[in-house]
Specification:
InterPro entries: Lambda_DNA-bd_dom_sf (IPR010982). GO terms for molecular function: DNA binding. The chain has 9 helices and no strands. By secondary structure, the chain is mainly α. It has 2 domains: 72 residues, 434 Repressor (Amino-terminal Domain), CATH 1.10.260.40; 65 residues, no CATH class. Helix 4 packs across helix 5 and helix 7 runs antiparallel to helix 8. The longest helix is centred in the last third of the chain and has 19 residues. The N and C termini lie far apart (48 Å).
């Protein structure tokens, strides 16, 4: 794994953490731009000389990581040194952390979102509304952690949640 370029290391790291094969990633790739098992292997093991934006998007989708992470790894694999003037967004780092389960990433993201809300307004956790929201978020974490994490990663700004049905 140490001999691989940054994109290859990223792919391998996620595969090992999730127990996925090249075939699994090919099956997980976006239907509009599927990646073959061979293409996944090439991206992982062969030198990267160029890569299309849609391949970056599809690979990010298949790996379940932010597009930025795949794009940076691809650029670094082509020898382009990145000097980012801004720190990585917390949600991007959280989504890229393959050591946590999807449920745990969702719970951390939910906690962060709640902390941002409380900083934005005078939020009191002992209010019935806050307790109801905490219960709703816990139920959401138990039912669909991966989907909810993707939603949170897509929009890190505080937002109003739709009312429960």
């Amino acid at each position: 794994m140490t001999d691989k370029h940054p994109l290859g290391r990223l792919i391998t790291q996620v595969q090992e953490a999730q127990g996925w094969s090249d075939r699994d990633l090919a099956e997980r790739s976006a239907p509009a731009h599927p990646l073959s098992k061979t293409r996944v292997g090439d991206l992982k093991n062969k030198p990267v000389t160029s890569i299309k934006a849609r391949t970056i998007r599809t690979l990010a989708y298949a790996l379940n990581v932010p597009e930025r992470l795949v794009a940076e790894a691809a650029l670094e694999s082509m020898g382009i040194e990145l000097r980012l003037d801004r720190p990585a967004e917390v949600m991007e780092v959280l989504a890229a952390d393959t050591t946590l389960s999807a449920r745990d990433r969702f719970l951390v993201a939910t906690l962060l979102e709640q902390m941002r809300r409380s900083a934005a307004k005078d939020w009191r956790p002992d209010e019935p509304e806050a307790l109801a929201e905490a219960t709703r978020l816990q139920e959401r974490a138990d039912s669909a952690p991966a989907q909810a994490l993707e939603e949170l990663a897509a929009d890190t700004s505080p937002r109003e949640e739709p009312e429960a049905r």
